[in-house]
Design goal:
With about 375 residues, the chain is of the alpha/beta class. Helices cover about 25% and strands about 30% of the residues. It is globular, with a radius of gyration of 22 Å.
Length: about 375
């Protein structure tokens, strides 16, 4: 019985792509967090005959469960696999580009996605640059569940075979040049298979639980508690989005995100959801679920992972958050590297600061994306 469901048809990626490395043993830098996915990535590549080196970013100064245990576990795995391991000090960059920007995004009424920024700036940015220049690596590999497909001198980014684990959404920021130098061996596997491979290889990370929270927020601390350390209390009204009636007061717009239902601190005869946040007037608007529906959005900082950049509107499937479904939409490229998307059916809780990911009409290939305005 297949324990991985649903699955896409396997393509020329994963180990099919890795089975025959060049005779000179091409060097691959594996971005290792100490978790089971990146550890098994290193194991698969080593066993496929590649010259593998592990690289881990030192991201947090102190108190991070990721950096406290991740670097140690990554080093232990590399020792097990008998491959080199390098820890790269990226603490200043990570603080400036990701940690410091996190509360500022909430102050602007945006709900950020730091993991996507980290992929672009850290894994395929600083770590890959370090690996190319100092370690002479030809490729970078990660433990993401997605597939790189090469065909007819073209390169494409596809969903993972196991759709329940697909992580292509957070890789929208990769350039085509980066993709050409990327290996994603887990794309044809499901998580249970990866656990089994790691267990068979007796990797120290084989049974390490998956990380569920942001690495820089201390364990046991909520996002609101964390933000309170950086953003002052700025009281304001909570208003009904349809009637304008004052429903209550809040102590800061940064405590809310679009679509939020719990923790509003108001009483009502009907379920109410946050529908809009205005940081300038310090007002939070709440309304019925129907008030969350929107037919269109705009995104900025567009990135396209296709050979020819689109100039005319085209049909595609668009996804507005990690756990949402990609749905049919008309995608229109705009000047200034922006995108307009009009959905066939209204979508709920389109949230500024999140990622718009654009897939082909078969919902298999990731074409590009942008940041939702």
């Amino acid at each position: 019985m297949d324990i991985c469901a649903p699955k896409l048809e396997k393509a020329s990626s994963g180990l099919a792509q890795l089975a025959a490395p060049p005779a000179n043993k091409t060097r691959v830098a594996v971005a290792m967090s100490g978790g089971v996915d990146s550890s098994t990535t290193a194991l698969l590549l080593r066993d496929a005959g590649y010259d593998v080196v592990g690289v881990t970013g030192w991201l947090i100064k102190s108190g991070s469960r990721c950096c406290d245990t991740g670097m140690i576990d990554a080093a232990k795995v590399c020792e097990q696999l008998e491959i080199p391991h390098h820890a790269v000090d990226l603490r200043e960059m990570f603080k400036a580009e990701i940690i410091d920007q996190f509360p500022q995004s909430y102050a602007r009424a945006q709900t950020p996605l730091p993991c996507s920024v980290c992929n672009t700036l850290v894994k395929w940015g600083a770590l890959f640059n370090y690996s190319k220049k100092l370690l002479h690596a030809n490729y970078i590999a990660t433990g993401h569940y997605a597939r790189v497909i090469h065909s007819d001198n073209n390169v494409q980014l596809a969903r993972a075979a196991d759709l329940s684990k697909d992580q292509s959404y957070v890789l929208w920021g990769l350039t085509r040049e980066q993709l050409k130098s990327t290996l994603l061996p887990l794309g044809d596997y499901c998580k249970d298979e990866i656990r089994a491979i790691a267990d068979k290889g007796q990797l120290v990370s084989a049974h390490r639980p998956d990380s569920q929270d942001l690495c820089f927020i201390p364990q046991g601390t909520t996002t609101q508690e964390y933000l309170a350390n950086f953003l002052p209390q700025t009281p304001g009204p909570i208003l009904h989005s349809l009637t304008g009636q004052i429903l209550g007061q809040h102590i800061g717009t940064h405590n809310f995100t679009i679509g939020q239902r719990k923790g509003l601190g108001i009483s009502s005869n009907e379920p109410l959801y946050v529908t809009h946040i205005d940081p300038d007037s310090r007002a939070v608007y709440a309304g019925p679920k129907s008030a969350l529906l929107r037919r269109d959005l705009k995104a900025h900082s567009a990135n396209w992972i296709i050979a020819e950049l689109p100039e005319q509107p085209f049909m595609a499937k668009a996804k507005i958050r990690y756990n949402s479904t990609a749905v049919p939409a008309m995608v229109s490229p705009l000047p200034d590297n922006k995108i307009h998307v009009e959905f066939e059916e209204a979508q709920s809780a389109i949230t500024p600061g999140q990622v718009l990911a654009i897939y082909d009409t078969s919902d298999t290939l990731l074409l590009g994306g942008g940041w939702i305005e």
